[in-house]
Amino acid sequence: MSRLDAVIFDVDGTLVDSERDGHRVAFNAAFEAAELSDRWDIATYGRLLKITGGAKRLAFWFESTGRSPGEAAELAERLHKRKTQIMRRLVEDGQVQARAGAHQLIDEIEASGVPVHVATTGTRAWVEPLLEHAFGNRFHTVITGTEVPDLKPSPAAYLEVLRRTGCPPEHAVAVEDSANGVQAAVAAGLRCVAAHNPYTRDDDLSGATLVAGGLDDPALVAWFHRRLRKRPDE
Ligand SMILES: [Mg+2]
């Protein structure tokens, strides 16, 4: 069991239940603001989550509902900008909350002297206020889709965190909720602990070292507890 020097968290679906009550609501509000009749119910949005990145998800949707590729791309770009603004407002209004167990887990990691970082595909414009609002700026290195446009399952965001922190991958662990996220972490050479949510319960998370039902799952809490207590320098 190698030493743990860094914990790198995904944001969407991992630290916060942002998909169903944040992003989905913001996408629907953006459709409405653009006077489009498109709406994503909870089940539809669950299927669309297989496409990583909001702009790509929109473009796929517009093409699959009969718009030409050109029209789909133009609409996706415009709607995504509007959606990001709306998401930011939802975040600032406190509508996106930390997932159960998130604060306790981060408290324990910090108390053992291990820094916490973030590697997300989300846009910095809403990720930063979200982390500040829900967690109070506890993350040392925060890499978002704004700095690293290669979306998960690309390992790019994780590799950038490792590069900036100088932490070797074998001494870090990623915390993820989805198949794309687990793949990204594993491709970066990281161990990955997965905490699925209702949207990702059926994802293939088999690349993860541990698959748990949430951040407050006793198996996940125990996994961290054992490794955090076994730091050789204590
Ligand atoms: Mg996620």
From TrEMBL:
It holds the Pfam family Hydrolase. Gene3D superfamilies: HAD superfamily/HAD-like, Putative phosphatase, domain 2. The keyword Transcription regulation does not apply. It comes from the Bacteria. Keywords: Hydrolase. One of its GO terms (molecular function) is hydrolase activity. PANTHER family: CBBY-LIKE PROTEIN, XYLULOSE-1,5-BISPHOSPHATE (XUBP) PHOSPHATASE. This is HAD family hydrolase. It comes from Saccharopolyspora karakumensis.
